[in-house]
Amino acid sequence: MADSQEIVSPQQSDNEVEEVPAPPSTQKSKADEEAAKKARFAKKYKVSEKTNEEILEAQQALWRSFVYDHFEAPVIVIVDGEVKYKFICKTSPSTKPLTRARWDDSTSNLVRHVNACKKTSKPPPGQKAIDAFAQGSTYNPAKFRIKLSIWIARRHRPYAIVQDPEFLEILQMLNSKVEVPHPTTISRDIREIFEITRRAVGKMLQAHPGRLHLCLDGWTSPNVISFLGITVHLVRGAKAESFILDFVKLTKSHTGVYLGQQLTACLKAYGIEDKILGITADNASNNMTMVAELETSLSGINSRQTRVRCFAHILNLVVKAIISPFMKKKKAAAATADNDDTGEADDSDEDHEATSARKRHRQPPAGRSHKKAKGYASADEDSDLVDVNGELLTEDEALRALEEEGLEIDEDGIDFTHETTEGEEEEEEELDADADAYDAEEIDALVAEIETEYALSVAEQRFARYTVTKLVELAKRVFHSPTIRADLKSCCIKDKCPDLQMVRAIATRWNSLAQAIGRALKLCAPLTRLLTMPKYNTKGKKGLARFQLGEKEWDLLRELHALLIMFLRATDRVSRSNLPLLHEVIPVIDIITGRLLEAMEKPSLPAQVRYGAALGYRLLNKYYSVTDESVMYRCAIMLHPKHKLDYFRQQKWKADWITTAVDLLRTQWEDHYKPKPDENAPTASSQSQTHDDPFACLDTYTLEGDGDVLDNWLKTPTNPSCVDPLAHWENQRKVAPMWEPLARMALDFLSVPAASTNVERAFSRGGLTVSKRRHSLNDESTRAATVISSWAAVPGLIPEAAIVATFADKAKRNKKKVSDPDVEVIE
């Protein structure tokens, strides 16, 4: 087998651990060869222009040998002025690390270590070998149950899957003695795995040397159970990691005080109440009250000064403000509701939106449990795009209209907006009425504020709304008709355009309107050809020609798209990693603010676009000014090697603003990170008196000098090439112990999540767990399965060995209670 083969090195190293001196006659040639290698290395990797971390990253991208997989990521060390890499064995980390000059690409020493390591390592203990179908693997009943439970939880499988005949046949084929647990046992196992892992996760987080961050949001499951979703964020090995900490069941009105109490209880259960720094949540007022509650219920440094407002929600709100002049508010069915004296509750969207503003201060969004949005409304109540009440046609009404026009309907049409996972589309396309009402309040307030300065005429409003309405309705019809899609494809070929389809604008995907307009602009000529086809404009029927856009309408869409595309690119930029961090979004906000200001002051732009830009600018400025209440943003920027104080100067901050920012940073440093002076430590003068060597002080010299390490670091030049500040500070922490406290502080502040996107992904997992066919799951099962699905994605987080031991011990105890060996024991 492959595991027993010796690894043969492709070349021998010139930098062995125990070097044998070469004969004198070859010393010169060897030195020349090394010098040549160093020169080639310096040229290839541009050593003079890059940092050590960037060079290592470039080298790793070219390493193809599997031997590197046997070692941890190389650690950069500097020995006698030369940069080297230290390789630590994953299998035997206690063995002496191997060191190699970075210009040396030989793997012979590494290969030799791997071969020796394989010979000495012991194979894992096993009980019974599975037959030829799984030669080399082992079967362990307890481990099998654990693997089965984790698979069902992580992949959102129903418990009853273990009783599928075909599934059982597969297992029996592999091992005739396999013991498949009952679905109820699987349910109990998942909850027990959760409890055991929860204790292990708590210990791991307690032992973590840095601070932890949280993301929070409320969620209501499809079977109407309310939870507070909590994700935890930390830095391990220079990488920002996150996973679900817990799903806390909520049983009372979601006031800020109640949420704070529940969060406090959760953190104390994990033993991490003193380790929390940043808390990221949306802009709901009860979240502010919750953070205030934490100040009194928890110790540590978390407070309103360390709260972070969700960047994704802010962008969402700004885009809503910009496109609001192009959308008509959906009229609530107020007349019907107000005149209804029956006293019975009305669950309609209209009624809910009318009252949600009053509820907003009492509870957060109740999840995606409302009816589907009715779409974008039109300003033209006489248009045949709307119903008799002036409302835009719904998806179902649009389908019926297609049927009336004699067009073939594809109800399972492809969504060209983006790929959706199982269960995602239904959740994303349902409105959160509470959040929408709260956002609408903010936008209405801004409209009233700028109405006199940027007022639109009635004609301008109708033109903007009708233009977007036609585009949105046309996209719906193309989406739902395979006949129209096929003809659009033919039109693309005739006009020599890319074979593309239209994108629908979906209310809950706030960037989808920009995508829809952008796609329509690319299809301008084919759409014009399509909408004039005789087959779609027969006499006596409403034809597609009514969706035709004029030149002025296309011009308006181009200018609106030019403004909205900036938000698409901003989203893409901060989404390059799984989670945007504070130091990544602040420059993005500054750029967006500048572009919106330019647009609102540019007279050549359509009035509707300038009006939307003004709304977006005012709203973004409002939330940007709120960042002054938090120390997190400014500290993150100042601790980034690329920015420091230079970023504030480039943004033309006033001198007293910069001074305030530095004072805030210094307060955090001195109160929570700066080492306390050791009274027993010898002073510099006493050291000089005890040493005979007057130069001994050079051996203990540090960059800290006689001043404060933070002040000295801020005075050093910025590092414009630093793209990964976490890697920079992690390396500084390892190679220079005197940097440890400041590096720890930097890692803490630079790892703060800027958006609560991870907790929203957690809700997606919860929605998949509680599917339409699993509505009987209780809160404990929902919690355990959802959280385990996240924990299982983090290598080593679930302590499988400890769980196997627990399960095996229980099995032994239960077997002692059963006298008949043929009786099956189900725990």
Polypeptide structure, described:
The chain has 827 residues and is an alpha+beta fold. Among the domains are: 2-120, no CATH class; 317-332 and 370-562, no CATH class; 630-676 and 703-750, no CATH class. It is built from 31 helices and 10 strands. A 5-stranded mixed sheet has the order 8-7-6-9-10, sandwiched between helices. It is globular, with a radius of gyration of 32 Å. It starts with 23 loop residues before the first helix and ends in an 11-residue tail after the last helix. Its main location: nucleus.
Layout of SSEs?
Elements: H1 24-45, H2 52-62, E1 75-79, E2 82-87, E3 98-101, H3 108-120, E4 128-129, E5 138-139, H4 141-154, H5 165-174, H6 183-207, E6 212-220, E7 226-236, E8 239-249, H7 256-270, E9 276-281, H8 285-297, E10 307-309, H9 311-323, H10 334-338, H11 349-359, H12 395-404, H13 424-428, H14 433-450, H15 458-480, H16 482-494, H17 512-522, H18 524-531, H19 551-574, H20 582-600, H21 607-626, H22 632-638, H23 646-650, H24 655-672, H25 684-690, H26 709-715, H27 725-735, H28 740-750, H29 757-769, H30 779-791, H31 800-816
